């Protein structure tokens, strides 16, 4: 489906604040400044967490609609804006679904284990997943370990999950001590099967080994997600000036590896093709 690599920027996440880094964006205007820099640096997609007036992660439908409308008006020609539904132990599947239904994003990330925490949720989750495919909302299924990936394959095989209009995010190191990822964490996932079946995937990694992990993923045909949600340190172990510095370093690494970096136009072509059965 794709010949290049897509760089996704995750500028803020759900938990970090200004105490972690002064350039972590918490308002619409701060996010706009950040995304302009990241688009210039090579990002084609932005994974955006909406924060409320107190800087807290929020799935409020009205607030998310306001952010999405404003950010898309400013960046639709430069970035695909991906809405997050992360629960952070606070929101229920019904609230996550209501958010997406009430905002109609171009792209959305969904943790499979959050929308389908056990078999009793599967029927409603399946209905929701197929609804998003019908509406051609590009879904990124977030998978935290090999068990999540096995569940994904099972749900696709059982036709509980549509096999169009989505890709995967393999999260490295979420449940390791100190949340410190390493490139070998990719070995926990069946990358060969993903490649053999032509499934589009990306990875993100926690901590100072982020760039090494992402380089390994790119060498295996994966896309990458980079930014302050997962890591604050640059390649030489110092605090990055901003998110754009981390994006720029991945862009340079990709170029040094002889890899083509997808533009937003390339990404949207891939998204369009992903809905073809």
Overview of the structural elements:
- Keywords: Metal-binding, Transferase, Zinc.
- This protein has helices at residues 28-41, 61-75, 93-103, 112-115, 122-134, 146-157, 191-196, 210-219, 243-256, 264-274; strands at 7-9, 45-48, 80-84, 107-111, 138-143, 166-172, 201-205, 223-226.
- The chain is of the alpha/beta class and 277 residues long.
- It has one domain: TIM Barrel, CATH 3.20.20.
- The chain has an eight-stranded parallel beta barrel with strand order 1-2-3-4-5-6-7-8, surrounded by six helices.
- Helix 1 packs across helix 2 (61-75) and helix 1 (28-41) packs parallel to helix 9 (243-256).
- The longest helix is centred in the N-terminal third of the chain and has 15 residues, at 61-75.
- It is globular.
- The two termini are 12 Å apart.
Would you count the extended β strands for me? Answer: 8
Tell me about the largest β-sheet: 8 strands, parallel, barrel
**Measured on Cα atoms, how large is the radius of gyration?**
17 Å
Strand content: 5-15%
Report the order of strands and helices: EHEHEHEHHEHEHEHEHH
CATH superfamily label:
Aldolase class I
The CATH topology is TIM Barrel
Which CATH-level-2 architecture? Alpha-Beta Barrel
**Distance, first to last CA:** 12 Å
What number of structural domains do the residues give?
1
- On the 0 to 100 scale, the average pLDDT is 95
The helix content is 25-40%
List the strand order in the largest sheet. Answer: 1-2-3-4-5-6-7-8
**Basic shape:** globular
The computed structural class is alpha/beta
* The level-1 CATH class: Alpha Beta
Low-pLDDT stretches:
none
Q: With helices defined by DSSP (H or I, 4 residues minimum), what is the helix count?
A: 10
């Amino acid at each position: 489906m794709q010949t290049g690599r897509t760089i996704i920027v995750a500028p803020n996440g759900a938990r970090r604040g200004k105490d972690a880094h002064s350039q972590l964006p918490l308002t619409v205007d701060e996010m706009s400044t950040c995304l302009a820099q990241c688009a210039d640096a090579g990002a084609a997609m932005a994974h955006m967490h909406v924060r409320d007036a107190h800087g807290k992660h929020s799935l409020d439908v009205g607030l998310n609609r306001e952010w999405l409308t404003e950010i898309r008006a400013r960046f639709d020609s430069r970035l695909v804006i991906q809405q997050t539904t992360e629960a952070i132990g606070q929101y229920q599947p019904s609230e996550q679904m209501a958010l997406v239904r009430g905002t109609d994003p171009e792209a959305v990330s969904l943790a499979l284990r959050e929308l389908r925490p056990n078999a009793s949720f599967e029927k409603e989750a399946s209905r929701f997943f197929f609804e998003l495919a019908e509406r051609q909302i590009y879904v990124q299924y977030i998978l935290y370990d090999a068990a999540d990936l096995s569940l994904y394959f099972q749900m696709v095989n059982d036709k509980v999950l549509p096999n169009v209009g989505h890709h995967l995010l393999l999260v490295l190191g979420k449940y390791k001590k100190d949340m410190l990822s390493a490139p070998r964490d990719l070995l926990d996932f069946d990358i060969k099967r993903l490649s053999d079946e032509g499934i589009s995937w990306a990875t993100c990694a926690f901590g100072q080994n982020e760039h090494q992990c992402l380089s390994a993923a790119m060498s295996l045909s994966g896309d990458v997600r980079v930014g302050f949600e997962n890591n604050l340190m640059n390649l030489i172990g110092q605090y990055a000036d901003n998110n754009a510095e981390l994006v720029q370093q991945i862009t340079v690494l990709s170029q040094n590896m002889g890899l083509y970096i997808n533009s937003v136009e390339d990404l949207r072509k891939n998204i369009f093709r992903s809905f073809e059965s």
